[in-house]
Amino acid sequence: MALSTAIVAASASLMTLFLLERLVAATNDVQLAQEIGWHLLVISLSAGALSSLAAWLVVRRLTRPLRRLAETMSRMARSGELLSDFPSTGGGSEVRLIEETFRSLVVTLEESRQARERSYVEAVGAIVTAADARDHETAGHSFRVALYAVALAKAMGFRGEDLKDLEWGALLHDVGKMVVPDEILRKAGPLTEDEWLIMKQHPGWGYEMLAEVRFLEPAAIDVVYSHHERWDGQGYPRRLAKEQIPLGARIFAVVDAYDALTSDRPYRRACGHQQALIELRRVAGQQLDPRAVDAFCLLSEVELRRLRQLCQRVQPGLSLPFDLLETLRNPDRLRTDELVIPSPGRPA
Description:
Elements: H1 2-27, H2 30-79, H3 93-134, H4 141-155, H5 161-171, H6 182-185, H7 193-199, H8 202-210, H9 218-226, H10 247-261, H11 273-283, H12 290-297, H13 301-310, H14 322-329, H15 336-339
C-alpha cells in the first residue's frame, strides 16, 4: 500500500512539472505559471491520496472476510470441534465461494465423524449387552449406569470429552468379567474365598483388555480399573482412598450403587427412589464419595426414570434403540436444567 501511494505521488509530481513547463513556454509569465502549477500539484496529490484510500478500502473489503474465515478455521483446529453452522464472513462472490467450499468440507467431516462414533457405540453396545446377559444382570444395566453417570457428571460440571470418557468407562466397566469362569460368575450361592479372589481380578482384566484400544482415553479406562474402589480405602484392586480414586470412578460408584438398589435381584425386590437415596447417604463417607452422593441426591427422579426407560428395550442380539444410540453418541444432549431438582434460591 505504501509503494502504491509513493508511485501515485511521484506520477502526480512529474505531471505537474510537465504542465508547469508547458505553461511557462506558452505564457512567458513565470509567476502565473508557478501559481497554476502549485494548484495543479495540490490537485494531483489530492487525487493520488483519494486513489490510494479507495484502493485501501477495496483491499480491506476483500481481506477482512478472508481474515474472519481464517480465524474460524483456526478456532476449529485448536478446539477439535467441527461446526458447519459458523456465521457467514460476508465479502464478495470469490470469498463466498471459498467459504461455501470450506463449509461443505466441514459438513462432510462431521458426517464422517458421526458415522464413526455411531459404529463405535453399536460395536461397544453389542459387547456390553452380551456381557450383561452373561452375568445375569438386569437387561440394560450397563446402559443405565452409563446414562446415570453422564447425568451426575454433567450436574457436577463435566462437559465435552470428559463426559464422553466417563460414558465409555461406564459402558465397559464390567468387560473384565468376560474372563471370569461361568461357574463363578453364575454361581447362585455365596462365593468361596478362592472364587472371590478370582472375581476381584475383573477390574484389572478389563484394564488390560482395553489399554490398547485407541479410541479410549485414559480417563475412560480409569473408570474400568477403579470402579470397585471405596472412599474409605477398603475397595479393590488397589485399595485407593478418597481423592486417590479418579473422579470418574467415584461418580460411577454412586450410580452403580443406585442402579443395584433400584433393580430387582433374585434375593430381593428393587427399592424405590427415596429409599435408595437414604441408603446412598448412609454409606457416603465410607463406601462412596460424599460430594458425589450429595450431587446425585439433587437429580430429578423424573429424569432418572426417563433415562431408565431409554434402556428397557435393550436385548442381546438386537440393535440399540435409536434414541438410546443418539444419546450415547452425544452425551451433551442431556440438559442440566432438566436433571437437577429446583431448590429454594435456585431458578426452576
